Amino acid sequence: MTRTRSSSEIRDASRRELVRALAVGGTATRTDLARATGLSAATVSNLVTELREDGLIADAGIDNGGAGRPTTLLRIDGAGGALLGIDVAETYIRAVVFDAALAEIGAANVDVDEAWASTDLIADAVLQAVSQAMERSGRQPDHLLGAGLGLPGLTSTDPRRIASTPAWATHIRDLEDRLRPHLPSPLVTANPLQAVGHSEVWFGTARGRSTAVVVNLGTGVGAGIIVEGRVLRGATRSAGEWGHTVLELDGRPCRCGRRGCVEAYVGVPGIRQTLHDVADGHDLLGLHQRDFVQGLGEAADDPAVAETLSRTARYLGIALSDIVAVLNPEVLTLTGWTAWALGDLLLPATRAALAERAPELTAARLALDVSPVRVNSVATGMAVLAFEHHLDTRALARRTRPRLDPAAVPVVTVPAPAASAPQPVAG
Amino acid sequence: MTRTRSSSEIRDASRRELVRALAVGGTATRTDLARATGLSAATVSNLVTELREDGLIADAGIDNGGAGRPTTLLRIDGAGGALLGIDVAETYIRAVVFDAALAEIGAANVDVDEAWASTDLIADAVLQAVSQAMERSGRQPDHLLGAGLGLPGLTSTDPRRIASTPAWATHIRDLEDRLRPHLPSPLVTANPLQAVGHSEVWFGTARGRSTAVVVNLGTGVGAGIIVEGRVLRGATRSAGEWGHTVLELDGRPCRCGRRGCVEAYVGVPGIRQTLHDVADGHDLLGLHQRDFVQGLGEAADDPAVAETLSRTARYLGIALSDIVAVLNPEVLTLTGWTAWALGDLLLPATRAALAERAPELTAARLALDVSPVRVNSVATGMAVLAFEHHLDTRALARRTRPRLDPAAVPVVTVPAPAASAPQPVAG
Ligand SMILES: [Zn+2]
Ligand SMILES: [Zn+2]
């Protein structure tokens, strides 16, 4: 039978909803919250009481603005706890500590080398970033409500196929096992696409949307898929691998070892290949990664660059049309550093190619834009995921052990996934 | 804010769940139903009472088999109502009347001509099929709990693009408006891909699955997408247009007017094109549609046919890998007459191409099979959709007007969709 959500699941969703509304909105009255979430006044009241007991909601003064009697404004109490988000990417590790209001209170970056063959080096780098970020936040480990670890995945475990992905990524399961005992608990894991999706659901264009797709453009590319307001994880937590869908049968070689993948055209190495096709030996080909992308943005008047951007926009529009045809989302959002750097240059031709290629009704009312969220979405998304997990767990503890001392909430460890899936999106 | 499901929505889902369990399982005790649906004993009891009052559930004897005391067996009472499912395809219209236990009690087919330019001819054919099916069922119109109309969609309204799709399909909105006053009410509409998805959720491989994809192979091809046990409709009810995603950039012309669509390779005209590429002038090219597909199945030893099937299996596996990469479903099911005729011949090479092409983790635990449901899934799916709508509507009436005379339930007409979306799948 299809699984139906239980009333406790509904209640968990409501609680997340309410916290999300406050975290994003800043302050709100109970009435505002009922309006924003669609929950009943009674449900809002009960949830507020619970969350206040847990120290997550505090008063923020009195609202005299309305027509009725003055009412109490509420806010998330940042001091009520902290959250750790970790982004393990191909070329760097970033750890960020947030307070309970999701304000960044400490962050650290550590560069990593794609050539490192051992997970030990990566694990050490992760722990170094985490300890620096914690130190900068001024919080103690026992302030943490939870942590989220975003791990790059792998699209293949066949060594012949992955010569060009980070060497250590073949041992991603080892890495997770190696890290888990040393990281705060509870620890949730996800792939970066799903983390970015969570970030957009909380802060970006996916808010309030039933079906939305967030496409991340960087070295690797992929999609976070939101259905009914939740990020789709898939049977093996690998949903969103749009970067390795086919754009051209038997086309360009992709670094995943296959041919004709979307990523081989609209990932940064793909864009380099296009410039190479257009003008072999072009100056910009001497630059790498972000410098290359920056260079393209600054040289848009150069005919070879203009042609490269034009082809890239077309490839992107056609590739996006596939995900639009299948999912028929309300909104489609581009994010990641390539999107931020080149979005304005690419969007008009991308929209045109998408409208030309997508089944007409699916594209008719679709909004395609670059995300307004310009932070490291992976770290934020992982912190948000850890927060959601904390809220659900805390509620479970309340249900199973009423009147429990908050300090004694059992630590629920999320089972490790079989492995953690797709291409790094923020490489 | 993301919409959270209300408790009445949960209750509606539970009611559908329970009816589904009985419709599929035949007979069950309340305890069986609680186990099958995951609902509490109290909820099952309340729902059974409601559904019994509505005449939809009847006793089916006593179960003495268990260890405990004898308990009442329940069944759906087929006489409790009837449902009409209508499949408007490119080359035929099929109307089927089901009793409330979803047993077929009357059906009629009317052939249609793709060249008909007027919706009047199609509308007349639909009404003729409906009236024949009703007559054969022996039920009166007032026995109907609802009707479902599956309409082929259009991927373009640009006349230059759709020369090869049915001429009348350009007027699909007119057709719906023209039919609505003459068809039973409430009338729900959906596209055939979504209808097939509903059918698989009730009777097929999507039962009990969180994420599942049902791919329909015929003249046109497309996918029914199930997420969290519900069929994904999308922002403009057009989700599932996998047939018009890109397999080969600037590849074969597709009848939608674009190039390189999946359908141009694995739809029946696409398979014909492949045979033509392999052996121009081959005998089988003289046959059309189902005869052609049947002929392929019978001539699998013919080297040109074998090569055609081998290429088709590869195209199909690669095209399926795209939807697997994006959605990471638990199960992937092939249905439709091409799948039924050629599935056994295609599956081994299709599975191999899919495993080779899909991101490894997404394919690792994926079950790919031909659906065991071998009926007209569109008509069944539309009847099921009408039944779900009836159950939800009836419950709404109960909530808003308690103790209402069942005969006085208000007729709720589902708003017509902007238009009804993708390619016909059962053409
Ligand atoms: Zn690839
Ligand atoms: Zn097409």
Automatic annotation (TrEMBL), chains A, B:
Family according to the record: Belongs to the ROK (NagC/XylR) family.
InterPro entries in the record: ATPase_NBD, ROK, ROK_cs, WH-like_DNA-bd_sf, WH_DNA-bd_sf
Protein name: ROK family transcriptional regulator
Pfam families: HTH_24 (PF13412), ROK (PF00480)
Native source species: Microbacterium gawkjiense
